[in-house]
Specification:
- The structure is a homohexamer of 293-residue chains.
- The first copy, chain A, is built from 11 helices and 12 strands.
- Chain A is of the alpha/beta class and 293 residues long.
Chain lengths: 293, 293, 293, 293, 293, 293
């Protein structure tokens, strides 16, 4: 999930442009044109930091100097300085809120993702924790990147990178089996096929029809264990990947992770993430002596 | 905060485009070209609905027929059908996630906003509840619109619509008084001037320098009461608006609202909103008999 | 009204792109690839210069070196050199017309704005001179910025930064009073409310309903004086701002400014501005000795 | 200069979007959602109308019904109704200013263009009146289209559609002759070659080097007559086109047109055009009885 | 690879906009405003048609009526009418070239793709024919869609939908084995891993390190057979997919397809496709009797 | 056809963005963040190189260092190194395919163009070789620029730069004569008028009606010679330009060029160009020792 800076820059500048509107009227009136400032971005609470790369790209595109003091994915304590920025005061104060919104949201997502993974790792399980496409609308890139920074699995990046046959597809087609077979016949060799099943009975059908991954949707942990047992009986366990999804929360994630599935996925890490509290503090400021312009 | 549909449509289609990428490969393989479907959007939990207008604009721009069953701002119980959609099955399934992400996020924000306001109204207080610019990056319009739908105050829509002198502006300039005076001298007659103060002592300075609104930043409820008393003593209470901001949460909001301030503002309703659980269910589907194309 | 350079750059490059089309065919044929040139931008007539900041951002984004010899808002005589530019000859000649169009239009607006203000200041009046939203379509930012540079008031920057209830709003709602009251009930605390009145009788209604600013639309100077007298009688003069608008020209502006209004606004400074005559002259040119590439 | 509506629509919607910002806050508060209105666009002064086509495309893209009562290029008296619009009140009031700005500017340009042409035609001259590329920045399409509507010649539409060797090109290359020859050797067969000359002496050089059009830049009418005589002596008059440019105004245009040139071009019709006074008046309004949504 | 029309429309209109520039000057001068026309798009040579869906979306977005007479993927003989279009003459003539360029290029690609596949199917082989990312720059969507329409495999749609470790990645990392293992450890469960090998020796290493697909790059048919034999000896044949790539042409494709690989991929079907000859012919035209506007 | 780099950059980055999607997942997993690399772009076959300027602009916009080893238009042998690039490894590998696609396509077009021109020059003819607007959709700029680099004539750059009355225009209007006369009456003095004729008989009509250029469409070489003779008889040969178009290929181009026409135009050099084989090879790579960020 590497984007050349220039491509990322465009996405980030669009966010800034919305926030600026016709211009920052306060800064224009309060801050003289040639003032320069040094500031620090500070974590006000502990967490896993994400968005440092994005922040740097945004700030540098505005002509500011940036030194990142932590790397994406690093866990920090409250009061930790994350980044030093220096340059034109007006520019810094105009970008402040957009900058903090990016780091706060992404770090909030990375933090909850990491916490869930650590819970699972402490139980000595290897189950992956994945997000879904339930993100803030338009923030697919930032939200998925933050999950990745937290150690999670991004799942599909959008609708073109894996086949995922969902309940509504199946309802149109008629059955899990028919849907998977139709896809298997025409799909590009480059793509995996995942299918959502809502009944234990459909698990075998899905595997036999040629699915690479089975999403066990809204199953209880017990139902999943039953599905695992069926696959083991048929010597199919381990031949396909199993993903548990739906109804999984921070509270019950361990129960799901213990069932033998390869992946647990949950939407709350992106759709309901709590932003990490981050602020920007001035450490030095001075009016420029430059004249003319 | 009225946007002609065509302008909104563009913002919404950009969200969809990101999610689609080079195309929905699953739907292309599973669903035949001329199938049509009727679906309902269903609230899976109770809350205040927002985003119905945006959803309708997005769907109609794609050639789908839409009937909204509830209006923005309406409070619904779980299982309530919000919207009927009919038209091309492939289009419906490709837009499903973007559609739900919009309604879920906006309804989540409207729901928590309404809840806080009702808490305050039950205590028979008229204090306004406002959001801040701490939104998901790039979602200023959607997030502010959702707050409005929930009954809250949008505060600044971006950096050009009111003067808000913040701590960092003051640090560059030297003092609250100096900052406000500088602004007052040059500001457009069309704009209000708000200034953030962090010390009780600065409240009077701010008012005397010509501020229209005082933001009491990170004050305890007790400090605010002290500030109110000072203003009353000087017969200035009621001449300026008072906004309490910083550290306000669902738990302590009533204490703040009771101090005599006009507005309490808090970022968690936008920056850390829990998405409302919404889903899309097929009610009827059929293959088209149209041939040729 | 401060925009970070990168955001402004995008607006300015779009202007250039329209003018270039598929490429400058003349320059491509006449000027060899590695030629470099030094040029000066010269005022051909006296006036108040605006657009220097925008020009610099545009030129630097193209890789040219720029030295501004005057600042925005400075008054210059004919023949004054405003700016030195050096760099790739092809680039300079391709951007020449877009560059001059920006400075010419903005300086034309700044010049007429300043002239009107000076007329008023000479009469020892403090009345503000504001523009309206009657600008060249799509040039809201440039035109308003030029007014500001000339010393004028920008009035609303677009439709989201102040409430301005116009004649057509009132016609739909029924009365000035009803319109203002409706707004007052629901408006964000961050916004001022202005209302347009066309009858002297409505001035008091507007104030009593809660307007912050009264726009006296198409009033004669005598009618305005009558309105001022009424407000004074009610001890309301000074409690609201008064804006005279409609029918105001360079000729009669002093009569209006003398009535006691706070602001006179007129559209001709933006909608019918005469461009200042500006040209670009080569001071040094040489073919590059660079070979290969 | 025909643009399919959909392509024009995009340019026009961008103008509207700038003016709307995050939304029309006044209309949102004052006008209820389902109100519909009928309005007329009225000329407040006499002139040649332009921009009707653009206006219609913009309005129809917003879902409004439009009936144009005059055609582009028609001359109207004051008080003439130009257009009827009906539909959603909020949309009409939000687009009002952008709509009027387009028609006002374009009609202003068409009016002055037509006036100059009529002056020349009354003198029974066939000289064409052309604009230059000195337009409001970014408004090349609208300004040129308005000149065309007024009966003028658009000259170059941008930098790719004709060769025009200007003074600065010549200064880099060394001489008119050298510049024209260089171009003639490599130019596409599809393009005409025009060259700017500042000395009578260069006219013959330019023709002999292969120019199709000679721009006589900043010549007095007498100098032009001298140039014409030289060409006639050499039996070259009529073999190339002659354009007089620079210093031409409404006052002296007839003197220039009488010299025997084919074209007179002047920038003031686009760069310093006075907007025609146009307004929008409500003729009928009603709240919708539609409920729900 | 299904894109909702509105998303596709935007891509297609951008192509049209580039071709139109500031407007179709010929059509504007020759064709009167209210003329309507019926035309047919005709195949001038036989082939497999692609781009009908894209063409329809583009034309309908311009307000034209369209009837497709053949479906994407249909094979036609010369002189076959593909599509009827009716509507505004100016619009039809302005879009003609862009329309034909889309259908010509896409049909050219579909035709050569189909031809290669039929060659292979006639030999009773099931080998898939895939394209690569060697497309006309910026035409990834259209070119891949055309391959699909011809019956080919799209391979990666862009850089985010499968892991493909190429020679240059391996050169940086050091070895096929190390590269595959690094990826396997961190890759999303949703993605397949393909690796390019240039030596027969590396095939086993790649499989053992965990690759899902092996690209045999620039192997001769004999080398591929050797690699297949090695895999069979190790009972690994059939456990991974094999793709032959590099140096494959219409001439030798059968030799490669016969080696036992699953996929043959070649760039010439997209990078060097011959456009199918398609034209647009008027069948009926009439001036509109509509007056005024 | 000179575009300032910044304008070109935008077009080129859009191509890259399509290819990257949500990010290069392979490079992100395989290549560590601070690795730097030196690479060379190598011609794998001989040809005329084009796209070096575009490539350099794209790469430099991504922060890479570039040294072009050949200039646009230079003819090279196989194995020739065209360009050295150094910088961030991830960025280089992510842009590799887009970069090569640009150079390959443009060089393929330049190579075939040059070959045809040399064929004609060897026969000591001066006939120009022009392309048409039959390009890859959306690639008008790149394809025309490549033709120019190969020594060809770009013909119209889009629909606004010359009048070209085609068969379909004539069918609507009624006759060649009527179409040309209509245009001649209203056309801008800045534009040439070309008209397509399909019958020898129409050639004189076209010239007499005022056309500057006659396109002899789908004429055999013999028919063209007949047309030339007619013009000579009327002493009109040499007064207008003659373009042969339609049915011209690499095989018969000499026959057409020998007929006395000024220009031969053919679509296959752009619409069916074979991409030149170009590759990118790493010459040096190292992990950065930079830590932190």
């Amino acid at each position: 999930m590497f984007l050349p800076s220039k491509i990322l820059e465009k996405k980030l500048l669009r966010m800034l442009a919305e926030d600026i509107g016709q211009g920052d009227v306060t800064t224009a009136l309060v801050i003289p044109p040639n003032s320069t400032t040094e500031v620090e971005v500070i974590a006000k609470e502990s967490g896993v930091i994400a968005g440092m790369e994005e922040a740097k790209i945004l700030l540098e595109s505005l002509g500011l100097e940036v030194e990142n003091l932590v790397s994406d994915g690093e866990e920090v304590k409250a009061k930790k300085a994350l980044m030093k920025i220096s340059g034109d005061t007006r520019t810094i104060l105009s970008v402040e809120r957009t900058l903090l919104n990016i780091i706060s949201r992404m770090s909030g997502i990375a933090t909850i993702t990491r916490k869930l993974i650590e819970k699972i790792r402490k139980a000595e399980l290897k189950t992956k924790v994945a997000c879904t496409r339930k993100v803030a609308p338009g923030l697919l890139y930032l939200d998925k990147k933050a999950v990745l920074t937290g150690g999670g699995d991004t799942h599909r990046l959008h609708l073109d990178d894996m086949i995922l046959i969902k309940d509504n597809h199946i309802m149109v087609v008629g059955s899990v089996e028919k849907a998977v077979k139709t896809v298997r016949k025409n799909v590009s060799f480059s793509k995996k096929i995942e299918v959502e099943v809502t009944e234990v009975e459909d698990v075998l059908n899905a595997v036999n029809a040629g699915a690479d991954i089975i999403m066990l949707d809204n199953f209880s942990a017990e139902q999943i264990e039953k599905a695992v047992k069926i696959l083991k009986n048929e010597h199919l366990y381990g031949k396909v990947l199993l993903e548990a999804s739906g109804g999984i929360t921070a509270e019950n994630i361990l129960a799901y992770a213990s069932t033998g599935v390869d992946v647990v996925s949950l939407s709350e890490i992106t759709a309901s993430a709590k932003a990490l509290d981050i602020s920007l503090e001035i450490t030095k400021t001075k009016a420029s002596k430059k004249t003319g312009n």
